[in-house]
Amino acid sequence: MAAWSERLAGVRGVLLDISGVLYDSGAGGGTPIAGSVEAVARLKRSQLKVQFCTNESQKSRGELVAVLRRLGFDISEGEVTAPAPATCQILKERGLRPYLLIHDGVRSEFDHVDMSNPNCVVIADAGEGFSYQNMNKAFQLLMDLENPVLISLGKGRYYKETSGLMLDVGPYMKALEYACGVEAEVVGKPSPEFFNSALQAMGVEAHQAIMIGDDIVGDVGGAQRCGLRALQVRTGKFRVSWLLCLCLA
Amino acid sequence: MAAWSERLAGVRGVLLDISGVLYDSGAGGGTPIAGSVEAVARLKRSQLKVQFCTNESQKSRGELVAVLRRLGFDISEGEVTAPAPATCQILKERGLRPYLLIHDGVRSEFDHVDMSNPNCVVIADAGEGFSYQNMNKAFQLLMDLENPVLISLGKGRYYKETSGLMLDVGPYMKALEYACGVEAEVVGKPSPEFFNSALQAMGVEAHQAIMIGDDIVGDVGGAQRCGLRALQVRTGKFRVSWLLCLCLA
Description:
Two copies of one chain form a homodimer.
Chain A: H1 4-7, E1 13-16, E2 23-24, E3 31-32, H2 36-45, E4 49-53, H3 61-70, E5 80-81, H4 83-94, E6 98-101, E7 120-123, H5 132-144, E8 150-153, E9 158-161, E10 164-167, H6 169-180, E11 185-187, H7 192-202, E12 209-213, H8 216-225, E13 229-232, H9 242-248
Parallel strand pairs in A: 1-4, 1-12, 4-5, 6-7, 7-8, 8-11, 12-13
Antiparallel strand pairs in A: 2-3, 9-10
Helix pairs in contact in A: 5-6
């Protein structure tokens, strides 16, 4: 295996996942992962550019940054690339009026979006909001549309809270895809557009950047397909069985 | 197109789907579909054998038969092939102890099943029971098992109630499959074992039977793959767009 210096040659920017890498979310704001507050501080003191690239869709960027600052992280809103603002941009460009199946914590990101007479469905990690009633409403709306549009903020299978593994938006996206016979448009990792917007925010090319994440598909696989290097951490949702996949890849 | 008499030559038994063919379920017990009470009565008066072959998993057979009898149908419990009793048989044979993500209405079918220290998950059309909390419990249990077993009572996408289309168990099965990286075992239509048990109950061979249903995948496709003839009704969940599929098939 090549030495670290060799593997990191030419790296000018670092994309950092948040949940499972910097902290585990949960009751009381969550818990920082050991060493991560200091690691971010060291990156910030280095010559490297840093952007936080998250699929967090339960909190607005403002709320997320506030939580992380309380835990001791040096982070500001402008340094966060998140799927909710990217989705608002897409809705605006395409004249889409969403039915939102999302968590109340992220609703403020959609404050200026027209939601009258919906012509698409947007789902995010709604947590308890994924009730049968809400899922059925999204389903019925998609079935009534001539050209059903389903936008999903990420497609993660699960994430880790301090209390254990929790279902993410991906399984619910799959449920609606199967029910309606549609394919969702994913906004967030591993979508190339999303990695590119994070790179743009740093002003760094793909081959000059490394993604650090806990999700082998969303973070590591997605970044590598975009020409970035990637680093799999063993915190968060990491599972030992993935090592076999990495060895076989 | 061949005449009816030709298409039905040699038919000795009829498998009848229930929901969407005999009645639409819903508040107050649901509504019979026009002409269906009399159609069942005529079949019963004919030389043909009749078996009701349903994926109903919100009600026990006893409750389902009581509902249908109140609506005027000539039906008894022994004439119903349903996935819950078939699942109990499988659990017993394989020493499986389920966590049940099911509707309260069907729980009595599992009264004699050992549910201590679960080593598998059984999902059925749980309706409002498909809360985030219950789904997450099923997910966590599957993730903790070395050999995760997920049994799904049917895999229907949706069904029709008097109030409109409703999500069936299939989308939730897909959600858990994706979240856990497992493949569910489906008990119910379109599984060949299920059609065969319905044929056995009638004492009729596949080539001597016709399935009448409203689901192009579960009823029509499943039956045809088992060597039965099949008839697609235009009630229940039927959608005009399926005609294109039938023409292209």
